[in-house]
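Lab notebook page, bench 4
Experiment: in silico fold of construct C2
Operator: M.H.
Input chain length: 201 residues
Purpose: comparison with the prior construct
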Amino acid sequence: MADLAASDLATIYPKPTPRVIAKARPEIDEHAKKFIAMSPFCVLATSGSDGSVDASPRGGNPGFVHVAGPSLILMPDRSGNNRIDSFRNIVEGSGLLQLIFFVPGIDETLRVGGKGRLTADPGLLASMVEFGKPPRAVLSIDVTEAYFHCGKALMRARLWSSDTKVERSVIPSISQMIHDQTKLGEPEPQAVVEERYKTQL
């Protein structure tokens, strides 16, 4: 199987239209602001100083990411696995990042790019209490680009269709899978894992 070169791409893909180029805006406008306010979930992508790349799911109540201004958004950090790969990339690497926001039921997504900084300012943490707790840190993002993706990818995936929903029982619990992979810890049923998660949100 031969790998494609950069020169091959132009023979396969036509140039994007002027509209597609122009839709990338330099800041958060009213439409992007509303979309972020409705979004309970996004994916955060970062890259490290060693060239490694990380993509991390982030979630909360709709609007958990705060739009503080046209060029500034704030993301509180909640309990996770403590690997902090994303945050290590931000503080040790360039700080450049990308986010993709999802809104359940809407096939379009919103991409936001910019440069991140971390803060543990007590006043800011106190202003972002959710699930009964303040965040441990806040990711402050200086926005340089925002644009909407068309809905074709999610339409192909039928992501929001009840017909494609998979029953959780078709795969082992996450605890069992990690135990099988690492031989560490004791495997637990998924119901036990989920009950524990509820105390850690």
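Observations: Strands lie at 41-47, 53-59, 66-69, 72-77, 96-103, 106-119, 137-149. The radius of gyration is 19 Å.
Next step: discuss at group meeting.
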